[in-house]
Amino acid sequence: MASNNRIQNVAIVGASGRLGSHMVTSLLQTGHHTITALTRPSSTASFPAPVKTLKVDYESPNDEALVSALRGQHFLIITLPVHAPPSTQSTLIAAAAKAGVRYIMPNIYGGDITNESLRKDDFYSAGAWKTCVEIEQLGGPAYVVMCCGFWYEWSLAIGEQWFGFDLRARKVTFYDEGETKIASSTWAQCGRAVAGLLSLPESAEEDGGAAVAEWKNKPLYVASFRVSQRDMLDSIHRVTGSTDGDWEIKYEPTKKRYQDGLEEMKNGVRTGFAKALYARGFFLDGVADFESTKGLANEVLGLPSDDLDEATKRAVEMVESNWNPFG
User: How far apart are CA 198 and CA 34, in angstroms?
Assistant: First the structure.
């Protein structure tokens, strides 16, 4: 297992979360890594025996404990809940740099943050890009950003402001005609992508060979599906046995929906952010269809084809079980 050209020691913040748990599972399956879960002192999360657990206060003004926990780690993966203050990630990044961590996968999972128009319009990508610049300016670790598109199960299950679906009420609002294709990923595919990346040598061992360093300070483009809302609804029909006649289907111009989301944000409506963010992804400029514009690393990472209907079934079951998206 020991090799100077392999990423062996991997630390994960948020290892028990929806995304982090899939990363742990996939990394364990490779058998190539020593995994350390960094948890808050109050955490009651448990992990399979091979995973080491270190409790540490991310918010302490004295970062020595955090630096100590990260010393010797080669790759730090950060997954944080949406309500985590931005300072938490900055603290983790600074500590990783002090500890000599070589790579950081920051808490940035979604669209193509290298796209300037997206950074201007969607109120998320600009902040994400700032985090990447923050890492580069430290002069030590490199970032690898996972551009995976919108999370499929989450976005389909959570509500109308996201992918446009209210699964419980059988209502959908199509952006324009509902035919715009975007990249979207399951949590499991994101976990497999991390494991695939970290199973590569750090530097190429042969001419043309893939290596982790290929994505140094760059986005890693992966996806489960290139999918439209129409594709999603057809998948729902296959999973549930419904038809269009069972659904209330509305159509809304995407740019109007984007502007409505901005207005809702101004008026303090929290879901306005999601409405604007997702509407921007469905613009006809193809900004969220990076499979077509940038290409994917799926094949290089050895990722399997995901099953759309199985992912849709999971989303339906989440709603039926009264899943709490923020719990």
Answer: 12
SS (H, E, C) 75-135: EEEECCCCCCCHHHHHHHHHHHHHHCCCEEECCCECCCCCCHHHHHHCCCHHHHHHHHHHH
Order of all β-strands in the sheet with 52-55: 52-55, 34-39, 9-13, 75-78, 103-105, 142-147, 218-221
Q: Contact 146/224 with Cβ under 8 angstroms?
A: no
Burial code (b: 16+ CB inside 10 Å, e: under 16) for 196-231 equals bbbbbbbeeeeeeebbbbbbeeebbbbbbbbbbbbb
Output the furthest CA–CA distance in the chain (Å, rounded): 61
What are 153-164's pLDDT values in tens digits? 999 999 999 999
Classify residue 87 by burial, with Cβ atoms within 10 Å: 0-12, 13-18, 19+.
exposed
Q: What angle do CA 24, 27, 33 make, to 5 degrees?
A: 115
Q: What is the pLDDT of residue 152?
A: 98
Task: Name 175's bridge partners.
Answer: 252
- Dihedral sign (CA 291, 295, 296, 302): positive
Determine which helix (DSSP H) or strand (DSSP E) holds 175, and give its type and residue range: strand 171-175
Q: Distance between CA atoms of 204 and 247, rounded to whole angstroms?
A: 52
Q: What is the rounded CA–CA span in Å between residue 236 and residue 224?
A: 17
Q: Is the pLDDT of residue 2 over 50?
A: no
* Cα–Cα distance, 38 to 88 (Å, whole number): 13
Residue 169's contacts (CB-CB under 8 Å, 6 or more residues apart) are 248
Helix, strand, or coil here: 265? helix
Residues 75-114 have pLDDT tens digits of: 999 999 878 888 899 999 999 999 999 999 999 999 999 9
